[in-house]
Amino acid sequence: MVQYSCEKCGKTFKQKGHYTKHLQRKTPCNNIVDKIEKIVEDKVEEKLQQLLEKGNIVEKIVECKDLILEKDNINKENYKTKYNFIEVCSGGGGLSCGLIKSGLNAILLNDIDKNSCQTLRINHPDIKVHVGSFIDIDYKKYIDNCDILCGGVPCQSFSYAGKQKGLNDNRGDLIVKFSEMINIIKPKIFMIENVKGLLTHNKGMTIQHIIDDCLNKYDMYNIKYKLIKCVNHNIPQKRERVIIIGILKKYKYNFIFPIENGNIVTIKEALKDVPKSDGSKYSENKIKYFKKIPPGGCWINLDVEEQKEYLGKGFYSGGGKRGLLRKLSWDEPCLTILCSPAQKNTERCHPDENRPLTIRESARIQTFDDNYEFYGSISSQYSQIGNAVPVKLGELLGKELIKSLDALNTLVD
Questions:
Q1: Is residue 132 part of a domain?
Q2: Measured between alpha carbons, how far is 230 from 238 in angstroms, rounded to an integer?
Q3: What is the span of the domain harbouring residue 349?
Q4: In total, how many domains does the chain have?
Q5: Radius of gyration over every alpha carbon of the chain, rounded to an integer in angstroms
Q6: pLDDT digit string (tens) for 212-271?
Q7: Catalytic residues, which ones?
Q8: What's the CA gap between 114 and 61, in Å, rounded?
Q9: Are residue 202 and residue 88 in the same domain, yes or no?
Q10: Does the chain have fewer CB atoms within 10 Å around its N or its C terminus?
Q11: Do residues 154 and 299 share a domain?
């Protein structure tokens, strides 16, 4: 359904007539951004003085801003901070979209994939997008203008599904290149998203090498990392990702990761009223097997002879292989959304219909808004969605980054 949105106050209308009357009313609506800036400037300064007298300003200043915004009924979705970020290896834009929703300002987005870059341009027409390798960008002009440098630096080298070559793979070398960018721009904060396998690669020595010898080569940053389980953050997906955060040491500030909660979002909740869209299909032969598998089941629900028929020699190889002929369950969060929904070892079948999840269903699981557009072939769109950081996770991280930057601004630069 088409919605009409007022650029000044942020109100949305389902009917064009109501939207037109809103624009033509005698008392014009106020510009929400101007209102926010004035309120924040006046009231945060007032609270700042109070906190200076009491102490603990670094921990409390951001709480005051949140209370002020809540008290004055400000539309937080339209709230924009003065903090800028650059994201490389943006892909389809899950992380950048979340950071923007949190209030951060993107000044540059980048990816080597042309379709991904077009997706970024369609959804963020006012933001500069660089197509190509991030190592070719002239970052010197962003010195003193970039608060956060972040990116999902290619990490297939560390993936459980890959051969885990680590830094011996050319893609692993991109982390080294990213560290060189950090040393050029010297942002107050940098953030990297990577796969779970990074923590265990080479018995944990790889991540320490990346931190000690690459990211913190010049001993400028306090760096910490955490394995984030998306399912514990209102995200309907059992996705796990490593987030690495570095803050300039001179600020002596400790970043706090988003706090987990106990609310689990199921596929049924996530896909309620999801728009219809295109998607991949299974072969008739594969559909034959899926018809015999209940929601939440997989190949082990078949008769033994059918198991042997489908798995072939793999039947005798041992191991769980629970990704084979896997059918999702309405009452559970989704398994990790992948780049291809119909690969034999990593299938994600719809709970009721014998087909993969559609484009919009996959995007919902990754917490993209329904009006977020993906450019390219069906295969390309699936890849962009599967590679993305869930938008909700990006937004949660963005809010904590803003809290950190607010705190840093109270310290001596």
A1: yes
A2: 6
A3: 267-387
A4: 3
A5: 23
A6: 888 988 899 999 999 999 999 999 999 999 999 999 999 989 999 999 988 999 999 999
A7: 155
A8: 42
A9: yes
A10: N
A11: no
